[in-house]
Amino acid sequence: MDEPPLPNLRKRLGRRFFSAPTADVARRLLGKYLLRKLDSGQWIGGKIVETEAYLHSNDSASHSYRGLTRRNAAMFSPPGVVYVYTIHAKHCMNFSTERGGVGAAVLIRALEPIWGIDEMQRKREKSDLRKLASGPAMLCQSLSIDLTHNAIDLETIDWLAIIAGKKISPTEIIATSRIGISRATELPLRFLISGSLFASRPAKKSL
DNA sequence: AAAAAGATGTGCT
DNA sequence: GCACATCTTTTTC
């Protein structure tokens, strides 16, 4: 496979990056690289092209809306802690945001596959690059993320990393309503890179 | 204890 | 575009 070299794995984003307001973190995650080290030692992953923000207040679509439960506890963890939940027998991955133990997180919805594409194809049993991580549950399947990874902390584990890439200009970012929710549908808290072929659904209008 | 809902994906029409 | 498989958590009785 013709893959570009891995980004510098020592330059990871952590507590500080995820401390910002959740919608800001969701925007800033676009264009960043999400990488996961397999047991074999191989790093696989790609570029984040779609995210959604779930707020700690005034957001009836957020899992944290009705307070702390065993399921959503990771949302209330320090910034940069992984929150994995199950939906329709599949998994979705988020990162906790904001300090102070508020329940907020950013859902990673889609990835442009770059590294370990053959591994992702094997895990997904699909060859089409557009079907590897163009949705939050596909993404988790591609990277072998499941409930056992809930509540891990980016600051203290070595096999998962988010690394800065080429800067995305604000004019390249499109905001839309979030996908698959029935409440708070009016909030523009889904963000994607304009024109990306790997978003879960194409963008309709530009900002 | 039971039932419904859900930040989804797939396959078929 | 629509139905539905599939399973965990939450809500209700």
Structure description:
- By secondary structure, this protein is an alpha+beta fold.
- The protein contains 4 helices and 8 strands; from the N terminus they run ααβββββααβββ.
- The chain has helices at about 15-20, 20-30, 115-125, 135-145, and strands at about 35, 45-55, 80-85, 90-95, 105-115, 160-165, 175, 190-195.
- The model has no long low-confidence stretch (mean pLDDT about 95).
- The chain binds a DNA duplex (13 and 13 nucleotides) through β3, β4 and α4.
Overview in brief:
The chain is an alpha+beta fold. Helix content is 14%, strand content 26%. The structure holds a DNA duplex (13 and 13 nucleotides).
Give the helices and strands, then pairings.
Elements: H1 15-18, H2 22-29, E1 33-37, E2 43-54, E3 82-87, E4 90-96, E5 105-115, H3 117-124, H4 136-143, E6 160-163, E7 173-176, E8 190-193
Antiparallel strand pairs: 1-2, 1-6, 2-5, 2-8, 3-4, 4-5, 7-8
The protein binds a DNA duplex (13 and 13 nucleotides) through residues 52, 54, 61-63, 66, 69-72, 85-90, 92, 94, 107, 109, 135-138, 147, 178-182, 200.
Mean pLDDT level: 95
Strand content: 25-35%
N-to-C SSE string, H for helix and E for strand? HHEEEEEHHEEE
Q: State Rg.
A: 16 Å
Q: Which regions contain 5 or more consecutive residues with pLDDT less than 50?
A: none
Major sheet description: 8 strands, antiparallel
The strand count comes to 8
Helix segment tally: 4
What global shape is seen?
Answer: globular
Whole-Å distance between the termini? 36 Å
Structural class based on helices, strands and sheet pairing: alpha+beta
> What level of helicity do the residues show?
10-25%
